[in-house]
Write a structure and sequence with these properties.
homohexamer, 298 residues, 44% helix, two-stranded parallel ribbon, 9 helices, globular, mainly alpha, 4% strand
Chain lengths: 298, 298, 298, 298, 298, 298
Amino acid sequence: MFYHDGKLQYTVSVERPNPQFAKLLQQAIGGVEGEIRVCLQYLFQAWNSRGPKKYRDMLMETGTEEIAHIEMLATAVAMNLEGSSMALKEEMAQGNPMVESILGGRDPRHILSAGLGAMAADSNGVPFNGSWVVSTGNIASDMYANVHAEASGRVLATRLYEMTDDAGMKDMLAFLIARDTMHQNQWLAVLEELGGTSINLPVPNSFPESRQINEFAYSFIKTGINNPDSQSDKGRWAMGPSIDGKGTFHVRLAQPMGQEPSLAATDPTVHVQVQQMTEGSMKTESFIEKAKDFITGH
Amino acid sequence: MFYHDGKLQYTVSVERPNPQFAKLLQQAIGGVEGEIRVCLQYLFQAWNSRGPKKYRDMLMETGTEEIAHIEMLATAVAMNLEGSSMALKEEMAQGNPMVESILGGRDPRHILSAGLGAMAADSNGVPFNGSWVVSTGNIASDMYANVHAEASGRVLATRLYEMTDDAGMKDMLAFLIARDTMHQNQWLAVLEELGGTSINLPVPNSFPESRQINEFAYSFIKTGINNPDSQSDKGRWAMGPSIDGKGTFHVRLAQPMGQEPSLAATDPTVHVQVQQMTEGSMKTESFIEKAKDFITGH
Amino acid sequence: MFYHDGKLQYTVSVERPNPQFAKLLQQAIGGVEGEIRVCLQYLFQAWNSRGPKKYRDMLMETGTEEIAHIEMLATAVAMNLEGSSMALKEEMAQGNPMVESILGGRDPRHILSAGLGAMAADSNGVPFNGSWVVSTGNIASDMYANVHAEASGRVLATRLYEMTDDAGMKDMLAFLIARDTMHQNQWLAVLEELGGTSINLPVPNSFPESRQINEFAYSFIKTGINNPDSQSDKGRWAMGPSIDGKGTFHVRLAQPMGQEPSLAATDPTVHVQVQQMTEGSMKTESFIEKAKDFITGH
Amino acid sequence: MFYHDGKLQYTVSVERPNPQFAKLLQQAIGGVEGEIRVCLQYLFQAWNSRGPKKYRDMLMETGTEEIAHIEMLATAVAMNLEGSSMALKEEMAQGNPMVESILGGRDPRHILSAGLGAMAADSNGVPFNGSWVVSTGNIASDMYANVHAEASGRVLATRLYEMTDDAGMKDMLAFLIARDTMHQNQWLAVLEELGGTSINLPVPNSFPESRQINEFAYSFIKTGINNPDSQSDKGRWAMGPSIDGKGTFHVRLAQPMGQEPSLAATDPTVHVQVQQMTEGSMKTESFIEKAKDFITGH
Amino acid sequence: MFYHDGKLQYTVSVERPNPQFAKLLQQAIGGVEGEIRVCLQYLFQAWNSRGPKKYRDMLMETGTEEIAHIEMLATAVAMNLEGSSMALKEEMAQGNPMVESILGGRDPRHILSAGLGAMAADSNGVPFNGSWVVSTGNIASDMYANVHAEASGRVLATRLYEMTDDAGMKDMLAFLIARDTMHQNQWLAVLEELGGTSINLPVPNSFPESRQINEFAYSFIKTGINNPDSQSDKGRWAMGPSIDGKGTFHVRLAQPMGQEPSLAATDPTVHVQVQQMTEGSMKTESFIEKAKDFITGH
Amino acid sequence: MFYHDGKLQYTVSVERPNPQFAKLLQQAIGGVEGEIRVCLQYLFQAWNSRGPKKYRDMLMETGTEEIAHIEMLATAVAMNLEGSSMALKEEMAQGNPMVESILGGRDPRHILSAGLGAMAADSNGVPFNGSWVVSTGNIASDMYANVHAEASGRVLATRLYEMTDDAGMKDMLAFLIARDTMHQNQWLAVLEELGGTSINLPVPNSFPESRQINEFAYSFIKTGINNPDSQSDKGRWAMGPSIDGKGTFHVRLAQPMGQEPSLAATDPTVHVQVQQMTEGSMKTESFIEKAKDFITGH
């Protein structure tokens, strides 16, 4: 169960409201790198957790913290949408003739739909999408997703930091950037605790390795041709022991090991063109005809 | 530029076509864990790469390999949609009365829209979405995204492996599972080559750490209350040196450091209800009124 | 800022896990009528609130309560995905020949993607979409959105209640149904407090009614023709004082008051077919040509 | 069946075409508050109506009227995209050096995709989404959805009205604003006719109230803590008879009545990490293993 | 402006309601091949039409007809959702033990969300998407879109026809199939009237052909390698005069004519990893730094 | 299987980087008219092809070529995002006061999310959507989809061509425009080879025409009323032999041939309002009640 105290986790202040920056901040709220995503991601991972208990408990803590980050950013958006008339008035006083570009760089829905408030959307107005919420049940897979989420989130926050000189906004972002530092470390700490790459990899480590076709489990496959300058095999991934310690990296030129596909002719009841139905290849029977008969009791 | 040779990277065979399994395989084609995603993700990372050259070259190799994986899976879907009338016929011969459930577990669009072929959609028919393609420009962030993509992809492939006893399908999946092993190792090899966590973290490592509010960069914040049994601080993330070696993990109880938000009253031209406009808080001027005047030349 | 105590708001128990019911429950988590929507909706309305303060405070309370409802339902999904092998085993023991339908009615991603956990998606696996989160800034408009959200949410919960006989699930739903009763009353209480329909309508009530074309503000317009049996004007909306008390309902037959549209010919640089460019109607100049010249400095 | 007469319901004229305003108008066509949504919403409610007949008849009338509103707005978009070269020419004559912002505030797809025409998308180019079409079958729930749709639609129209001084556009919007007034009244008239809140609430009113957990049906639950200044319980929703007349509002402090969730360990065949499989909690049997056996005939 | 008469364009009857078939019919309502798409597509093409007038007039006729097709199909869905309890009762009477599959093949939202009515979604419950509505302004491009829409629509309708033996449903589909025949012919008649392929191609025909790189305008480019059995150049597209009569088809082996891409190093303010910033390639200046300075008045 | 050589199909050069043009180019990458769509569309059509073999072989060639087009455009986007600081610096030197519009016309995610790289999205940042990938299995239907895809793609490319004076960009677009010419001809060549309209139409030509209701297969239905000036029947579609040669075009006034729909009353367990349940029309039995009993073993 959840509670709130009505205050922000960290101060949010805006020296000079800027509706363009409000638009950019939306990326950190409803974008794929944003806080709604990490909030739901950690909470769903917690709620779906089937043990050990300490990981569930820990995910709950941080998932709950992230709600407060959405709150801070939504507040920052709303504050950046205030008082913007001031700047406009100054510009107008200077008689700027370029009348049609005044809304350039703003999100029109901040006015039209949200009445000067924040939305569950990214910086282009594309709505938050639940498909971004990762919770696979496999803790190593989820931790790598979480590290990436915090890495791309911190990259985003530093880019936002560079795009403003508003001291209030820089301060708020400097706090969020610090939290992203912790969270990157936090998810990697889980992986370390679980044994590091030599134990965790390949994810999932519960699938017997003997069942994979091991011959290809440590081959770097070159699909490049006619490209003598390519440096694709000049890296760590092409030689030496594999990161999981279970194989040796080596290079293999791509070559087909499979057949040229040849599908059976289509069932006539899916109504392709008659020219596509060549007598010889009609090796399947009619699926739909039968399904229909079955459904309708024939 | 790209070329093909019309053959499959690895043999795809189906002993007994199963339209239900065709539906499940769609997750590995057009799902968030699927091959269209990793294919476009590695190719966009390559195309957007601004150096060093060897990473671009390497990403191109693997991005190109993934097209062949989509090809294998699409072929597997098409093959699983063949000949299914056989099984139906047997069941019908046994006079199964449950006529309405015969299509249960199948994707109706495999017949209606695709004419017994594969689609760019997941196992529920939800279309592939370009927002899943991660290419941030920051190579550490992208490598963690790639490790997760291959981890969740391998988890998916092992689950599909468990859900079939078709020897052909198991063989194909065993190959793909091996490739996912390599690719997990491959992306982690890049991170190792770039210096490992002590160099790469926090991502981005090009943002001066002095600018983040360091006091909160290594704190595990407990948002839990009234929960004495919680084990949330019983892990590696709560004590000891941080993973990046730049701080020491410690625990902090959540408490607000920010204000209770109080936004300025809304501009009257956004047309909230009159009851919302309380005289005292009307500290903003009319933004839209001004924007309108400006746009229309008043 | 937000806190949690790790316990559920109300007991969640499942007598007999049912993966089909897990699929149905997803509608109440990530569907348009679901709890993620109302949770974010009330929180965004609170965060965007520009007064009076008591409405912000009140919205925060209920938005926070809704997180606990997502938590209960996610837990219920995870519990319904457990132990289902029991039922399967029994059926198998009976030699059911209809082997292909065993997954019918289940969400395959509950296994493939979520590892027997809940997802941020609806009962068809369609992801939650941020466009459903309504926060217009106008409190009357938002309250009507909220009443509908709770009405459709309660309708959904009662339908789920009818589809299970599991005593645990029925008890959980009976609790949620009661909360939806309160929340419907709660949002209507705000509207009453703000003066009821005579004050609030038409929403927004801050737009001078003299500026709307009043002649059509209380007309029921009949677009039906040749339909003598129609009862469309036999209701309260066709006669008597309007609900807002500011007009009188009356009926009007639909008839066009506007012109037949005739658009200017297209600019040649948008490259329609030459046959579409009829000399006579070329009254516009070339927009793109000019835009291009301007952009490129010509 | 449907007919048209090729004329507009109300005059659409544009004094000075403005491609920025064309972009804003898209919100009223393909946005969540727009006319495609209400058009389809009322028509689907009519088509799905199972009585009484007069409501179906009435919904058909208004659903059909809304097609004409889409038509008016699409025409307005197309007209606002004409002749815009004029303004550009003037600006160019003044040697404006800010060449890169000339497309700011325009929707690039109005040129690139639509060739100076309207699209089925919102003001950010996000496509119309069918999930917005509400038709629950429960008339009270649907009427509240309709009131909100018309309230947010009228709010949007008044905001658009404020953002233009074009007399033609203002006249068109003044007409649409008047129609929204009628439609708000119309849907509330249905609710009044059906007995008002004392009869309709809680929606659905066909679920026996004795089956809900009545103890929580009229409680305002405070999830706020440590916030003495909160005014969340200073409203109508916290005291007095409930709006439906079936209970008395009262305040309750949030406290967990449920357990701390503890899920059964995951089935090994979903391939979590081995470290997640702790012997003691393995109380479930293998679901997938069994499903597989069953599917494949083992 | 639009009108309706409350009757169906063609009789809709259902002999034996079938909720599975209701699910399949959804593809013809809200799917990419469905009637909402063609309805909006033709109406938007009409509303955006800038001449000649007869095409606008004609598109309005057919766009309006398509509303009646949505109406017929929505009615068919609602009728197929009735009375299904009969079939269930029979099955139950036979003691079918496979209790979990009874909802297999049904759309759960037909009950949960729509209360036994139709929805604006496809057969998998994926919502209608406005991006499918094609209106480019170029009439030849649009007519080919329309031919495809009617071709895939007729293919869908014939597949639905095959999957039912309900005489009522077959009769309704036979009518819709006939209308699709007309509409395919109708759109091709426009292309014929505009001069056929020799005049219309390449679309757009208003772009001076001298500006395209003509050398590649009639080359079939073979990207296949090592595939001697390929028949890819054994068709009409590889030899003889081109369809537009403006060139001669010929075959060309794919070979790169462009450079190996080498992008400038990234601006440091986008915060890639420091290891990506190699001194030598730093040829760009800092864009964001400058943008920031500019925005913030430095 | 697929290969690459690391070089571009055709030279991509940019004289003067323009981040606005980068945004416009995104439409050609991830838009509905873009290259990801055609690439996947042709590849899926090839992979799903069930004969004749030469069509599969041919589709593979062109699908593979299209990957190179995505590559060219992604490179062009990345190049247009370089060095843009130059232009900004000049403008700043001129003291342009309109500080808020500097990002107008740019995609903020090019900086925030992609770090100056290309994305799998359109020019408004709306992600690529897999629903656009057409592969019906019917070759005539698919070829018309392909002609449209190349027609709208060439229209888009010519519009982009008009919007830049950058010689490098014009050269690249001139190449792509030529390829679109070939591809339009190519898909029509398939249709010619398959017998042209007289053989292919109506698509699918494998459905016995006697089963459609032939009386309506060649009627142009006028839904327009009260519109004497309409020219809707003044075209080729209203008279003369049909394009497929199987009928004669003629005009029919729209009139309903079907009934006024009257649905059975709703099952009480879907919980409509009690006022909707009128005794007389309760002809259906309770579906859900029965389903529930069945599921739960009652």
